[in-house]
Structure formats: structure tokens, C-alpha cells
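Q: Give me the 3D complex with zinc ion.
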Amino acid sequence: MSVLIRGGRIITAADDYVADVYVEDETVSLIGESLDMSADKVIDASGKYVLPGLVDPHTHLDMPFGGTVTIDDVESGQTAAAFGGTTCHVDFIIQPQGSSFADALAEWRAKANGKQVIDMGYHMAVTDLEEGGTLEELASLPDEGITSYKLFMAYKGALMVDDETLFRTMEVASQTGALVMVHAENGDVIDVLVRQALEAGNTAPLYHALTRPPEAEGEATNRAIQLAHLAGAPLYVVHVTCREAVEPIARAREAGWDVWGETCTQYFFNSLDDIAKPDFEGAKYVYSPPVRDRANWDVLWNAVRSDALSAISTDHCAFLWDGQKTLGKDDFSKIPNGGPGLENRLHMIHEFGARAGRVSLNRMVELLATNPAKLFGLYPKKGTVAVGSDADLVVFDPDKKFTITAADQHSKTDYNLYEGTEVTGSPEVVLLRGNVLVEGDELVASPGVGQYVPRARFGQELRAKSAVA
Ligand code: URP
Ligand code: ZN
Ligand code: ZN
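A: Here is the predicted complex, encoded as C-alpha cells.
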């Protein structure tokens, strides 16, 4: 199937120009002015942006967590992603304690089988190196295209690992070319604060935020940075929320250490005011690290502008408010942690980042697509618009008015963190390897079109098949 996209404004991390894009055999084969080619499908993109399909490096689909399972499976989560212009994501396999990594991988592959709407890769979340996976098995994961290891420094009694496991995994990563990712909060300290709050009768959602203070995030971030430096492993700090965590990352980066950080869409827009909402509505905003005070919004915008933080993910970990979040009606520590976001990352960052002048359009593309692709071994197959890259493309209408509302979303959850927000600019056509996924309000492609993408080791490039010599 061939596709010709005519006259769009192509925006990559580096460039901004008007041209035609010709797609053959799932890749971009030609970019030029007024291309004289026939094609099976011609898309008029005049007045529109042509962006690379976005890459989300942080999602949790069909994941057991907090006494339940995230409500979006691979099909519904990826459908939501496609409508939001995301054509590739990297999801977390969680190694169940006592299980081998191979068993965990098989389980996650089975969940995706036949349901994939967009392309995906996997990170491996290491929870147990004693009874479960071995160091040798961990070392072999990059051969399967799983080139990042994730460790939780919080969620005591569930996913949290001790410093020994953290450091041993970092040592393996320094040998295998994997990137280490950390959820950086001090889980021991949080555990004490949670028990104290509950003993004092403080059970409302707001106490989720008050028992996970910024200092706990700052301390763990700094600890992870120092340990990764000692082990010689590259480090990526996920979902950074506050000054206390941004500062040690910025310092490490200024010193030339292999440290990167991401934040997530919600941390620019949600705050303590949301989690304090009455009638248990605050539970919608229970995710970890928690919402912070509004002063941190500017800290984060400055950080993504200055490259102290290099990516914006969604940490999509969706639960129903009615039926799942309500597990913690009488005890905030039982509210499943996580929120939805896959569908609206581009809407929100385009509106309040690019249109508001906080980041350029190029930087927006870099944060949402190019840097995630580069850091996670997907570039230049993914994350840019270039000859030889996968034809993952978003024709984006910068003038389309769009109101974000749970009533119209494709995620299965029953709320939206940005309910009622009006934006100007929305994806019009979304292509995955040249296949039209979304056109207007319609999902055109069927589940099964998406593929597993084995990722390159940290710092290495990944080329589309047709571009490999
Ligand atoms: O609350 C969150 N973020 N849930 C998903 C798991 C994680 O910590 O990333
Ligand atoms: Zn986390
Ligand atoms: Zn997460």
C-alpha cells in the first residue's frame, strides 16, 4: 500500500518545513516538494502539521496492581493511544515475585496477542532476584529486545526492591547495555507516614499526597543517581514531579553523567487542589508520586525546556473511579494508584506547551516522540519523519477545536483528568507503518495491526527493515 501526504508542515525535533511525504512498504520512502507520484491513498495535509507518531515510554496496560487490574487492556489502551496520536509505546512487564523473567514475558505477550492496535515494546520491572529471576536471565533480556530494567523504590510490601536488588540490577545493566529506570520515592519512609496518618484517623484521598512528600522523592532520586553512577549504568528517572527531584537530575546532567528524567502530562495540570476534592472525587487524582502544589508546574515547564527533563510520558495506569478507586473509600492507602492519560498527551502539551509558548513545536515533538525513541532504542525507526523511518505519522489539525471529556474517550475508564478542557488542535489522521489507524472520529484499522518491536540496546540505533543495508 502506498500513501501520499500532500503539502503538510512537517515538524520534527529539528525541522519545520512544508513538503509531501510518500510512503511505500510501511516506511517513508521519499520527502520532497510537489512529488509527482500516484498512490493508493492521497491525504491533503495543507494547513496541517505532519508529526512523527508519538512514542509513550511509560504505560501500564492490563496490569495487576493495588488489589485489582488496570481497566485498559492492550486493545482499549492502544485504541486510546492511537486517537491521541501515539503509535508506539513501551509497557511494563511486572515480574511477579517468585516468577522467572521468561514466565513474566510469556504472560505479557499472551495479553497482547491479537489485540495490538499500535506498535509496542516492553520494559522489565524487576521485583525479585532471590526466589524469581536470576542475574543471568536478567542479562539475557536485551537479546529479546527488552533493553530497560525498571525498579520500584516505593510500594513497600508489593513491588518495592531494596538497595541491594537495585544496585545488582544496575551492575547487570552496565554490562548488558540496558537502561535502568527507577520509580524514585523512599518507600520505607512513606510506609511510616501512611501508618501514622491512618492511626490518626486520616483516611481521605488527600492523605495519599501528604504521606508522600517531595523530600521522599528527592532523596530516592539522588540515591538512585549516586548508585547508578557507582555501578556505571545509565539511569532514567520516571515520573518526576517536583523541584526536589529535578535538581539532582539537573546537577548530574550538568556533570555529564548518564542520567535522564521524564515527567508526565498530569503533573503540569493536577495539584493538591484536585486530590482534596470532596465526596471521594479526589481519588481520581491518586497516583504516585502524588500531585504536588501548583508551584511545581513552573518547575516542570522550566525543566522540560532546559532539558533537565527530556521526555513527557503518560504513566497511563487507568482504573475506574466507580468500582476500583472506591476500594479505598475508607482508607486512602487502598486506593489503586494510577491515572489515565494515553489519549490526551498531545492535546494538552500542544495547547498549554506549544500554543502557550512554553515550548516550541520542535521541542514538543522531541519530548513526546524523538527523545523517548532515542532513549529506548527505537530511533530512527520511530520518533521522527525521515526517509527510511517507519511511516508512523500524525496529520494534526492545529485549528480544530476539541473538548476533552470522558464521555467521548476510548479508554475504558469512567473519568478524565482534564475533564472539560477545551483545546485547539487535534490529530486528524494517524498512520502506523503506512496503515491508516484513525481518520477523524473513526478507528479504521483492526486490532492485530500493531506489532512487538524488539528495541536496540541503550545508545544504539534501530532501523526499519527496509532501511537496513
Ligand atoms: O500511580 C502510579 N504511577 N501507578 C502506576 C505505577 C507506577 O508507579 O508507575
Ligand atoms: Zn511509578
Ligand atoms: Zn508507571
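A quick observation: The first strand starts at residue 3 and ends at 11.
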